[in-house]
Amino acid sequence: MNIGTYIFAQITSFLPQRQFRRIVSKYNDRTQGWSLSHWGHLLVLMFGQLMGCCSLRELTDITSAHNKKSPFLGFGNTAVTRQMLSRANSVRDYRIFEEYAFFMVGIAQQLRITKEFELHGRFYAVDSTTIDLCMSVFNWAKFRSTKSGVKIHTQIDIVTEIPVFYRITNAIVHDINAMDWLRYEPNACYVFDRGYFDLSRLYIIHISMAFFIIREKFSPKYEIVDGEDILDGADGVFFDQTIRFTSKRNKENYPGVISIAVRLRSVSD
């Protein structure tokens, strides 16, 4: 047994298999009687990730090479063929694996929380990244005249540095749309860049009893409800105010008050 298969077996031995079976039982999946079980399917995909496989063919070639170790690795007694794995990937209910992934994320979050970073609520960072693809191969993902791509929208728990939400879309989908998919927690704070500046969506965070931090995208008209000028500006902040938007459209999109801090940018910013 080589070191890679040994490490894999040790890692997967800690996975709560009973919880996975509970999740499988929730879904009326017609593939439950297949020779490649749901658990074996999951482990095969994890094995491919650990081994750095770049294709289905490469993955099944490696599992075939370790065929005698399949029961030890948890794949089952039947050899995993490319046709078998391809069919399982296309037919099986993805929600089984998604729900189990988020269950494991929850466990990881609890283990990663330390007393060194205590806040009244959670802090999340929301952002996206675009992965460029070859247009001749992935023409379904076209988003520019010369390239294709997909975008990964991610919400990261800042304390634990663990992603708690992610969704893959075509790269043409704007970042703002990701705000409609998030479930806002009371007392939590969400950090966005200016690409997410949309007052109607930010107001949903406000009425959800949560908070947000974002840089303004434009200079809106507003009136000061409360606050003061900070004369010394020792920390670079010169205004700390509560305001209300005065233009008709902005008042309709964000009818409540909002706190702002104006910081003087230095030459190094």
Shape verdict: elongated
Q: Please state the structural category.
A: alpha/beta
Per DSSP, the total helix count is 9
Show unreliable segments.
Answer: none
Our measurement of the CA-to-CA distance between the termini, rounded to an integer number of angstroms, reads 54 Å
Gyration radius from CA atoms, angstroms: 24 Å
Q: How many beta strands in the DSSP annotation? A: 8
Strands of the biggest beta sheet: in what spatial order? 3-2-1-4-5
Largest sheet: 5 strands, mixed
What is the mean predicted local confidence, pLDDT? 83
Helicity level: 25-40%
Which sequence of SSEs, written as H and E, runs from N to C? Answer: HHHHHHHEEEEHEEEHE
What fraction of residues sit in β-strands? 15-25%
What does this 3D model show about the protein?
Strand 2 (148-157) and strand 3 form a beta hairpin. The protein has helices at 3-12, 17-26, 38-50, 56-65, 70-73, 82-91, 94-112, 199-207, 248-253; strands spanning 123-133, 148-157, 162-170, 189-191, 211-213, 222-229, 237-245, 258-263. With 269 residues, the chain is of the alpha/beta class. The model has no long low-confidence stretch (mean pLDDT 83). A 5-stranded mixed β-sheet has the order 3-2-1-4-5. Among the domains are: 3-108, no CATH class; 219-269, no CATH class. The chain contains 9 helices and 8 strands.
